Amino acid sequence: MRAFAWFVFMAFVSPIVAAEPTPNRKLVVVTEEALRIHSESLVIDGHNDLPWELRKKDAGASFRTIDLLKPQKELQTDIPRLRKGGVGAQFWSAWVPVDTIKTGSAVKTTLEQIDVIHRMVKQYPNDFELALGTADIERIHKSGKIASLIGIEGGHSIDGSLEILRNYHRLGVRYMTLTHSESLAWADSATDTAKCGGLSKFGETIIAEMNAMGMLVDLSHVSPDCMKAVLKVAKAPVIFSHSSARAVADHPRNVPDDVLNLLKPNGGVVMVNFYSGFIVPEGARAMRKMFDVGRELKKKFPDDDVKYQEAMREWQKDNDYPAGTIHTLVDHIDRIVQVAGIDHVGLGSDYDGISRLPTQLEDVSCYPNITQELLNRGYKATDIKKILGGNLMRAFRAAEKAASR
Description:
The chain is an alpha/beta fold. 45% of the residues lie in helices and 10% in strands. It has one domain (6-402): Metal-dependent hydrolases (TIM Barrel), CATH 3.20.20.
């Protein structure tokens, strides 16, 4: 996600919190039927921020202090839990803070993060293999490995350069989130003041270039005006790699119903985010203020990070909210299905980029719980398989087919 803007994330993180299920929403018990459906599915997650955590916690991803083959208590992701969760393909996020564009280090840091992902895949060749498209995903999944793809989270990473965008594609990047927490000159963020009324002419050129390369356009983090502008000019299906339904939880990071309706002709997919601050209604109300509060406190304490972090923690304490349950997440899936249709929803957890998760979604081992709850709500096996990964594969194939080079 880094749903928390770069300037608030480190100050705002808290231990992973799980809420107690309400009486009418009991703990999900995974059945043999659910396990069978899950094992037959290609489970694809649209967004995981593990690479940045490796950069922070493991000396730039040296793999000397963190071994992903062993359980990692301080992370939400490791290989044993990915296996338990039945993950078949994962988009790893090459996220870098928005402030890197101001310091002139956005491209350098993004290249470093892409390198982290490549080295992680190389470090664990029995479990990961780099995928560059849908044929690779299918082949790697059949081999028993986890297909590993790269997504860039934020257009600030290209520093306004189509040439840099093309070079990222050559390095294996297969989607780019147009913005992160701040608006760019060519695309507006959902959590900042608009700069170009949604999408500029140069922004349209970027969309055209991504379509030509077969790179997926990711609309998570962008404003509704930007979403609509992109959907008018896109020649291939878009994705929301880690967003949820605004009608269920009113946060600007979520997708409003009028945009969900536009996904039908486009063929796009909303991959639901698991973060409690986006999917729990009370959390969405609290988190709507977070970015503005962070900006104001940064102005107040521009050179005193300790006081800034203390102030953010106090704000957090005064704006607490419940973590929700797995039922909360599936409410978002239900809404997207209701408005956009069964072909337009997927999973985009945001693991290791978020600090608070609903009960029974605490880490990457929990995907079978979603399968069970979908069964509990009457979804057919064929539709569950679409949600778990089939819809993303369809959209990705269409983007590949639309590519002109």
